[in-house]
From TrEMBL:
GO terms for molecular function: phosphatase activity. The keyword Oxidoreductase does not apply. Residues 28-173, 195-339 form the GAF domain. Residues 366-619 form the PPM-type phosphatase domain. This is Stage II sporulation E family protein. The keyword Hydrolase applies.
């Protein structure tokens, strides 16, 4: 089955191909435009549209209309009113592929406008000449997505090509009929072509035939390399066994020295021709710049080996081919960007799985305690992490007898989803270290720095050092190994299982919350300390506390308290305090669910802007 991006591209190419067929079904331009407008509206997902054709003296005539509101019924007074988009077109201000314009006709119209106030104006061009305007109406609050804007731009090129084709037919009759058919066939072939190189070769072959020239070529401007490259050629004598594409000019990407037209190319050129071009012995020459978004990307040229002066209508025809070429290059660019995004998504998915492997697969089982954890990155990967570290007992201690039978470990949530592996049984452990940390960035840089920080913290803590010393040593190691300029906040505590005694230190992290069942109060676990990875020898305060039965400790990152609602208000510490106070009698799993529900309701649909991590430790109440 094709990937979603490929399916979307196929659907768009099919619709554009259908539009091209519609424009080719009749030689009557107005009939073709009337039929095409309905397809355009269905393709973009809007209703009302109309097309002006440009006449002499910057006059415009309504050539086609589709599903207009009653206030814009034609004929009617609204069509005699001032027109902003026509003025902008006459002043060369419609210089973008698609421009949003507030409609002066709709402003002045009387009656039901269906809420329409503005339209997307698409200049219909042939080369540098604007032949008309396509207007697709929308409401003041309507939005046209980037993909639809790109489709409108492609439609504008198709309509411009069709209009120029029709006008050209009117001028040169029978000969141009064959040219139009060839151009349409070429347009259809280019639209459905999956490979760029065969499409370019077909275009230059058709160009040489349409202009009855000996040769046609597309020379690409390699701006980065400062050179011109022969990308596609028909009728050229090229060295055999040479890798394609060929270097044409090693110093001038835009062939500035070539004239637009010449009957004797070598004589009209401002400098001696490059060796490969000189060996072709061309006399007649016609060239046109190929532009993408107003920037030249190369030159399309036709040549004859006999002296020949190309005419204006032939230059216009080459301009149509250049438009087709520009569309082909733009579609290929968009396709490559889509493929690159798809590859990046796949790589980020793999990175997410690798990062998830750094987090605990489950929460530990401790006699007399319950532990739950939750982690969800704001992007595919993030910078938060937490860890559980089994520590050696304090010096001089003896193994303690568990005060209550071990419970099954609480559920772990990773990457925002439930994971239920076998719990890590630490029923015989006497001490446990708990880490929560937040790298001050998001995305891939934070994920890489998270892996470094997590490894260094675990390696420093695993031999049982006191929390303040762990943070000091980890800070030195991070400074020694990191050159990224990132830093990490960290809170580390050790728990003596039998007594409930905890010792903790803070490296610039959010203060965890402690609910004391004896008083019913929620207090932050305050400890002074700076973030890790900034200064060489910071000092960290170390504090102690004994958890009583029923007490709860909530460790969290600022993705919780800095969640923002549409009014740009923060969730804040007070709401988290109130939630812990209200739900402290529940299990850690239920406390986490209550916090996540409250944050989600508060955000009211706003996108998550930072990673969210929660670790909840509860000492079982006395039965």
């Amino acid at each position: 089955m094709p990937a979603p991006d490929s399916q979307q591209r196929i659907a768009e190419l099919t619709a554009l191909n259908g539009l091209a067929q519609t424009l080719n079904q009749t030689l009557d331009l107005r009939e073709a435009l009337d039929a095409a407008l309905g397809q355009i509206c269905r393709l973009i997902g809007l209703h009302s549209a109309w097309i002006f054709l440009r006449g002499e003296g910057d006059t415009f005539l309504l050539a086609a209309r589709h599903d207009l509101p009653p206030a814009l019924s034609y004929p009617g007074p609204a069509w005699n009113a001032h027109c902003t988009c026509q003025d902008q077109c006459a002043a060369a201000q419609l210089d973008k592929p698609v421009t949003m314009v507030r409609c002066s006709r709709l402003d002045a119209a009387v009656g039901d406008k269906w809420g329409l106030t503005q339209h997307a104006s698409v200049p219909l061009r042939s080369g540098d000449e604007v032949l008309g305007i396509l207007n697709v109406a929308t409401t003041q609050w309507g939005r046209i997505a980037t993909a639809e804007l790109q489709l409108l731009a492609a439609i504008g090129w198709l309509l411009g090509t069709a209009i120029a084709r029709a006008q050209l037919y009117a001028h040169v009759k029978v000969r141009r009929v064959q040219e139009q058919r060839a151009l349409l066939s070429l347009s259809q072939d280019l639209l459905v072509s999956e490979e760029l190189e065969p499409a370019l070769q077909r275009l230059v072959r058709v160009g040489a035939r349409l202009l009855e020239a000996d040769a046609c070529a597309f020379v690409e401007a390699d701006e980065l390399g400062g050179r011109a490259i022969l990308r596609a050629a028909f009728g050229w004598n090229v060295p055999p066994q040479q890798p394609w594409p060929l270097l044409l000019d090693p110093a001038s990407p835009h062939l500035w020295y070539l004239p637009e037209r010449a009957s004797m190319l070598a004589d009209a050129a401002l400098t001696p021709l490059p060796a490969l071009l000189a060996t072709q012995a061309f006399h007649g020459h016609l060239g046109i710049a190929v532009d993408l978004g107003g920037a030249p990307v190369g030159t399309l040229m036709v040549n004859s080996r006999a002296p020949r002066q190309f005419l204006d209508d032939e230059a216009q025809l080459l301009g149509l081919l250049a438009n087709q070429l520009a569309q082909t290059l733009e579609r290929e660019r968009l396709h490559q960007e889509a493929l690159a995004r798809q590859r990046l998504e796949q790589e980020l998915d793999l990175a997410r799985e690798i990062q998830a492997s750094f987090l605990p697969h489950c929460c530990p089982t401790l006699p007399g305690y319950q532990i739950s954890a939750y982690y969800r990155a704001a992007r595919q990967v993030g910078g938060d992490f937490y860890d559980f570290i089994e520590l050696p007992p304090p010096p001089g201690s003896v193994p303690s007898t568990p005060g209550s039978p071990p419970r099954r470990g609480e559920t772990v949530f990773r990457a925002g989803r439930l994971v239920s592996p076998d719990p890590q049984d630490l029923s015989s452990a006497q001490r446990l270290g708990i880490v929560i940390a937040d790298v001050t960035d998001k995305g891939v840089p934070a994920a890489l720095f998270m892996a470094l920080s997590r490894t260094l913290l675990r390696a420093t803590a695993i031999d049982g050092r006191q929390p303040a010393e762990v943070l000091q040593r980890a800070n030195r190691l991070i400074l020694a190994d990191s050159r990224s300029g990132l830093f990490v906040t960290c809170f580390y505590l050790t728990l003596e299982v039998a007594s409930g005694h905890i010792t903790y230190a803070n490296g610039g992290h959010n203060y965890p919350l402690h609910y004391a069942t004896a008083t019913g109060q929620v207090q932050p676990l305050r400890a002074r300390g700076i973030v890790l990875g900034i200064v060489p020898d910071p000092q960290f305060d170390q504090h102690e506390l004994t958890l009583q039965p029923g007490d709860v400790v909530v460790l969290y990152t600022d993705g919780v308290t800095e969640a923002m609602n549409p009014a740009r208000e923060l969730f804040g510490d007070e709401r988290l305090h109130a939630l812990l106070h209200a739900h402290a009698q529940r299990s850690p799993h239920e406390i986490i669910n209550a916090v996540l529900t409250a944050v989600t309701e508060f955000a009211a649909g706003q996108a998550q802007s930072d990673d969210i991590t929660l670790v909840v430790l509860k000492r079982n109440p006395l039965v």
